[in-house]
Design a protein that fits this description.
Helices cover 37% and strands 25% of the residues. It has 309 residues and is α/β, with parallel strands linked by helices. This is Tagatose-6-phosphate kinase.
Length: 309
């Protein structure tokens, strides 16, 4: 089973405009609201892929019916820690002319140290049921920056594989606990080590530093340039697929779900990357946070081209 951790769930308000006019008036083509959060998105895709999963995180009581109602409709099991406050709202403006998304993300409602301790106790009691733990996304005010490091360390004691998808100090500290896989983009990888990451050689060189710290796999998403998977002995490059992009929100979360699917199925390195890229690409076919469907993944698998360098 895959357990996801979403400490800063949200409502994604996606607005599509024909061509974004900065400082001007924009005609809205479509608006939709989706319950989201990186871990929640992973749960959604795993449900569609038929992989047993459990959602964990904070449940903001002012909007509890929105979050738990969504998970109930999804058919996803959950164990959530109740906290005061409301779900943050993230505004996503998608420019149809350029396929560029501009995001305005709120920080989230603050939680207490007691809330954090209670959540960790809840999570640790569920770990014996899991094989993979996904820790990802931002955290609300009140959550310490070493939270993912602590979770990964505890998971490691139980022999579980962990996937870390975060940025900034959450990523830096999380790496110290030696997760199984991390999934930064180029900019996040470079910022973590204070270096410029502009091309494939830079990615490989910096990813090797991460591997030396005990991480098994580093997957670097490169947007329109595809993705790179680096391990101690191999480097694989997945070339991008050309598709009609309807939305980019959640493609990275779909990629994480693809990794989880392949791990749960006991697949090899190239198939880990193949399924991750197939899911990420499948997600691009849908607007808003209507993420990858199983048939999308299956349709894309044969089209993913992977080369070892």
């Amino acid at each position: 089973m895959v357990i996801t951790v979403t400490l800063n769930p949200c409502v994604d308000r996606t607005i599509e405009v024909e061509k974004f006019q900065y400082g001007g008036t924009n005609k809205v083509l479509m608006t939709r609201n989706d319950i989201s959060g990186k871990g929640i998105n992973v749960n959604l895709v795993l449900q569609r892929l038929g992989i047993e999963n459990l959602a964990t995180g904070f449940d903001y009581q002012e909007d509890t019916k929105k979050l738990t109602g969504f998970l109930d409709r999804l058919g996803c099991r959950y164990k959530l820690e109740p906290v005061e406050g409301s779900l943050r709202v993230n505004v996503k403006i998608f420019d149809c002319a350029t396929s560029v998304m501009s995001e305005f993300n709120e920080r989230g409602s603050a939680v207490t140290a007691g809330n954090v301790d209670s959540f960790l106790k809840l999570l640790y009691t569920q770990m014996d049921l899991a094989s993979v733990i996904v820790v990802d996304g931002s955290v609300p005010p009140g959550v310490p920056e070493d939270i993912y490091e602590r979770i990964i360390e505890e998971a490691g004691k139980k022999g579980l594989k962990t996937i870390l998808d975060a940025s900034g100090e959450l990523l830096k500290k999380g790496i110290k606990a030696k997760p199984f896989l991390i999934k930064p983009n180029q900019d996040e990888l470079g910022a973590t080590y204070g270096v410029a990451v502009q091309n494939l050689d830079d990615i490989i060189r910096t990813a090797r530093k991460v591997i030396e710290e005990g991480v098994t796999y580093v997957c670097v998403s490169r947007g329109s340039q595809g993705a790179v998977l680096v391990s101690k002995e191999h480097v694989y490059v997945a070339e991008p697929l050309t598709v009609d992009i309807k939305g980019i929100q959640g493609a990275g979360d779909s990629m994480v779900a693809g990794f989880c699917y392949a791990i749960e199925k006991g697949m090899n390195e190239t198939d880990l990357l193949r399924h991750a890229v197939a899911c990420a690409t499948g997600s691009l076919l849908h607007p808003g946070t209507q993420l990858c469907e199983k048939e999308d993944m299956e349709a894309m698998l044969s089209k993913v081209r992977i080369v070892e360098v």
